[in-house]
C-alpha cells in the first residue's frame, strides 16, 4: 500500500459513497455490502426530510434513490432529496406528493445546487409537476396541489 493514511482513507470513502474504484487490499464483496448498507442508510435519512417523495415512489424508492446516488457523494439529506426531486422532475418522473414538497421547498428557500439552501427574502412562486406554492413574508402556502392520476375503482372499466 502506498500513499499517506489520509490518501488511503479518501480512496476508501470515495469507493464507499461516490462510486470510486475499490482501493488496493479491499475485498470486493465486503466493500459492495458496506456500500449498499450506506446507501440504504442514506436513503432512509433522505426519506425523513422528503417523506412525500419517498412515499410517492413507493416500492421503487430504494432502487430509485440507490441508482441516483450511486455516483454522487452526499451533500446532506435535505440537499440530496432536493437534487433527486429536481432530477425526477426533469425526467417527468416526480410523483405528485414529491412535486408538492419540491414546490413548497423552492418557494421558501433559495438553493442553487451547490451551496446550502437559504431562506428567501422576497415573495416567491414555485411550480413543480403542476403544484404551485407561494411564499409571502416568510410563510409558504401550497396554493395548488399536483395533479393526481384518476383512481381506479373496482375491477372493470366503464
Automatic annotation (TrEMBL):
The chain crosses the membrane at residues 12-33. Residues 6-89 form the SCO6045-like C-terminal domain. Keywords: Membrane, Transmembrane, Transmembrane helix. The keyword Transmembrane helix applies. It holds the Pfam family SCO6045_C. InterPro entries: SCO6045-like_C (IPR058711). This is SCO6045-like C-terminal domain-containing protein. It comes from Micromonospora lupini str. Lupac 08.
